[in-house]
Specification:
Layout (H helix, E strand, L loop, with lengths): L2 H12 L3 H20 L4 E3 L3 E8 L2 E4 L6 E4 L2 E8 L1 H7 L3 H6 L1
Antiparallel strand pairs: 1-2, 2-5, 3-4
């Protein structure tokens, strides 16, 4: 599913126009990006948590030449799925047997 498909589903579910759904989704994504870039975490209970995480410097290899190169330390965005999201994606076997 891409952004336009997500906007369409959100518009149908919320009973609003696609333009309004697109504006709302863009505002939410922008707010998450802005908060995470400042080092804050964004938690959506049941869905997951967006945060930034440091990545240490390391050595790598150029796959074409095999030459060793240094990869500098950086900060990367990280998403951790919430319990409800995990359960919806991969229900536990005991819960699946009850159905």
């Amino acid at each position: 599913m891409n952004k336009s498909e997500l906007v369409e589903v959100a518009a149908q579910e919320a009973g609003i126009t696609k333009a309004a759904a697109d504006k709302a989704l863009s505002a939410i994504i922008g707010a998450v990006v802005k908060a995470v870039s400042k080092g804050e975490s964004v938690t959506l209970v049941g869905f997951g948590t967006f945060k930034s995480a440091p990545r240490a410097a390391r050595t790598g290899k150029n796959p074409k030449t095999g030459a060793t190169l240094k990869i500098p330390a950086t900060t990367v965005p990280k998403f951790t799925a919430g319990t409800a999201f995990k359960a919806a994606v991969a229900p536990k076997k005991s819960a699946a047997k009850k159905k």
